[in-house]
Specification:
- With 230 residues, the protein is an alpha/beta fold.
- It has one domain: Creatininase (Rossmann fold, 3-Layer(aba) Sandwich).
- It contains 6 helices and 8 strands.
- The protein has a 4-stranded parallel beta sheet, with helices on both faces.
- Helix 3 links the parallel strand 5 and strand 6.
- Helix 2 crosses helix 3 and helix 4 crosses helix 6.
- InterPro entries: Creatininase-like_sf (IPR024087), Creatininase/forma_Hydrolase (IPR003785).
Length: 230
């Protein structure tokens, strides 16, 4: 069930599902909303499996993207994101949820979500928050490490939104190497003129992207089955 389409009498007793992403550059070949699009698609497919038990929240498109300063992005400060999410979770108590699963498609949100999850869960709330981070999963499928806009994200987008992948633009990319200190000491702009952080050439493989998406859907679905439906 989609929260935006449910009445106040229909929302209670369900497991909330909240996709979170980002709006930031993803190289010359992927859309700014790549992280959000992937998280939203995974969450949508999970909701389709459990329409009577899952309450799909509207996607939070803008996250923490300060690591992309110098490139186009939209974002908020880490402290702003923490407070916003804690306020959102506090108000979510009114929905009488059984639990809430956050599907996060952006690596830059992970540290914030860890704080939010701990702060909320340790405050004796009526339900618990579980975070699923999609970034970095299934690296073995591609043979290299995709930290941003590389093989994994490009292949996932090719699988779910192929018209948004400008594959021909990859011919312009000369260097995708992972620089020391990326995301902790230096920004993406300082590390790569192309905005891609991938250990090796970017592989575009629709089949591998499809497998990665389905594995994420199954992982979340299995968690919901074991935690709430048995």
């Amino acid at each position: 069930m989609k929260l935006l389409e449910a009445t106040m009498e229909e929302v209670g007793g369900k497991v909330g599902l909240l996709p979170i992403g980002s709006v930031e550059q993803h190289g010359p070949h992927l859309p700014m909303g790549t992280d959000s699009i992937i998280a939203e698609e995974v969450a949508r497919r999970v909701e389709e499996r459990f329409p009577e038990h899952v309450l799909l929240f509207p996607t939070l498109y803008v996250g923490c993207s300060m690591e992309h300063k110098g490139f186009p992005f939209l974002g908020v400060r880490y402290v702003t994101m923490v407070n916003y999410l804690l306020d959102l979770l506090e108000s979510s108590k009114s929905l009488n949820l059984r639990g809430l699963v956050i599907v996060n498609g952006h690596g830059g949100n992970e540290s914030v979500l860890d704080i939010v999850q701990r702060e909320f869960n340790f405050s004796s709330p009526p339900f618990k928050v579980h975070v699923v981070n999609l970034v970095g999963k299934d690296a073995h499928l591609f043979g290299n490490v995709d930290l941003h806009a590389g093989s994994a994200e490009t292949s996932k987008m090719k699988a779910i939104r192929p018209s948004l992948v400008r594959e021909h633009k990859l011919r312009e990319v000369k260097d995708t190497s992972v620089k020391e200190g990326i995301f902790s000491e230096i920004t993406t702009y300082e590390a790569s003129p192309h905005g891609i952080i991938n250990d090796g050439d970017v592989e575009v493989n629709e089949d591998k992207g499809r497998v990665s998406i389905e594995k994420a859907v199954e992982e979340i679905s299995e968690f919901i089955r074991k935690k709430y439906l048995r």
